[in-house]
Amino acid sequence: MIRVDYFVITMPRSTTADAHFPSIVGQYVSKPQEDRIMQFHGYRGDNKVFVGQSSDRIMIWSSGQHAHYVAKTLNTNVFESFSVARIDLQVTMTSLDADYMIEYIQPNKVYKATKVTNVNEKGTTLYVGAPTSNIRLRVYNKTAESGIIPDGGGEYVRFELQCRNQYADKAFTAFRNNMVRSFYFMVMKRMIDSYTYKLVESAIRSSDEELFVDDFPVGKDDPIARKKRWLEQSVLPALRRLLVEDKQYVDNFVKLLYNGTNDASGADMY
Predict the structure, then answer these.
(1) Model confidence, pTM
(2) DSSP letters for 92-111
């Protein structure tokens, strides 16, 4: 699943926009506190969302898991116009060794590329595109950054497409019109080698549910929490598919959860 991980949008102030300002704060800012970003004065929440006003514009800034929600649900129809300053689209997939995978990605020579590798510890990051460009790809070892490992082992590697200015407007339009896959594939295909591109494309297309949970843990969670995520992300999607193909089997499986005995054989499931 392609997710929005960073989102900044501005729009001109008007009588209608100003009237909606309190509602926007109420909808998106958790536990608002007065704050300021550049010339914008407003409210920042503990959920990494800021909504503020300058003399002539309104800005909504969000990062992390809440950026996806803001970008998905913001009612842009109430504004005369708007401009997306930045939107980051990310895909997180698993790899046995994220650093090794990143080390052998071949960026397109058209783009400036920089690789940052830690010494004596895990954590490699690849940048494709200049820091000031309107489109830039960042590939990094998410497990090394967060300390969270996949339930099935290996490491998380994140492919983060950073879009600014006109690319941000195009990405946002694609996102809101359910065409974000096409946009993401188009850009990725011309920035990295075909082998890595196919890996990312396959990971996106084969995912029925979110590949990366909405509430990504901020610390090292306990084994019980990891098992719950595994059930929600792996077992449940598989059961849903099987429900279409063999409903009787799923019904028997649910019974086994409660009594531990197979109705047909009478044998205990353990």
Answers:
(1) 0.76
(2) EEEES-HHHHHHT--B-TTS
